[in-house]
Sequence to fold (164 residues):
Amino acid sequence: MSDAEITDELPQELNVSEYVGPYLFPNNSRRRIPAIIYLSAALVCTVVWVVAADSPLVNGGFLGAAIALAVFALYGFVCGKELKIDESDALVIAIGAVGFPVGHASAQMGWRGWLSRPTWRILLYSNEPQPDQRGLVFVDGITGEVIDQLVQANPEDWADLGNN
Fold:
């Protein structure tokens, strides 16, 4: 086999000609859809329990199921707050919070608390070839408020990578 016959090919997901646009993170408000389904099922269970209470096929389990489904629905409505800050906005907020020019950065969505409040976790490195500083910033996905931040000197030694 000659060198001309050996080719290198990008994986399909990295093919630039098939780029469809930036990734859009799913909104937290989608939790309201199952909440509506749970609430509808709770209503059906309640109606069946009220209408067919004398039937041997219907007992208090229908009422118990209706209450449980209604609780799940309520939780879905409370937790389904709309995500107003996308990853680009969160990155801009995080850059302002760390106080150094940023080179590489990464954003991850997480949730905090019993009410599953959406929170962006932004990891940032300073803009040198071998970053001197790094920061971790938590940004609220609803208000854009900086929840917490940590900025420190970069303890990673990347000196060996510059020689290649």
User: Anything to note?
Assistant: The beta strands are 102-112, 117-126, 133-140, 146-153. The longest helix spans residues 32-51. The radius of gyration is 25 Å.
